[in-house]
Amino acid sequence: MRLTRRAGVAIALSLGVAACARPGGGPEGGPPDVAPPQLVRVTPDSGRTGVRPNAVVFRFDEVVSERPAGVPSLDRLFVVSPRDGNLNVDWQRDAITVRPRRGWRPNTTYTISMLPGVADLRNNVSKRGASVTFSTGPTIPHTSISGVAFDWAQGRPPTRGFIEAYLPGDTAFVWIAPLDSVGTFRLRALPPNRYVVRAFSDDNNNSAFDSREAFDSAVVSLTDSARLELYAFVHDTVGPRIESVTPEDSVTLRVKLDRPLLPTLAITPALFSLRGADSVALQILSAQPATLFDSLRSARAGSAADSLARSNPDSARRIDPRFQARRDSASAARVDSLRRLVTGDTAARAAVAPRMNRPRPVSDVVLTLAAPLKPATLYRLQARATGLLARERTSDRSFRTAAPPKPASDSTKATPVPRPPRATSTPATAIPPSAVPARPDSAVRPPVRVP
Question: Which residue range(s) make up the domain with 258?
Answer without folding.
Answer: 236-301+354-404
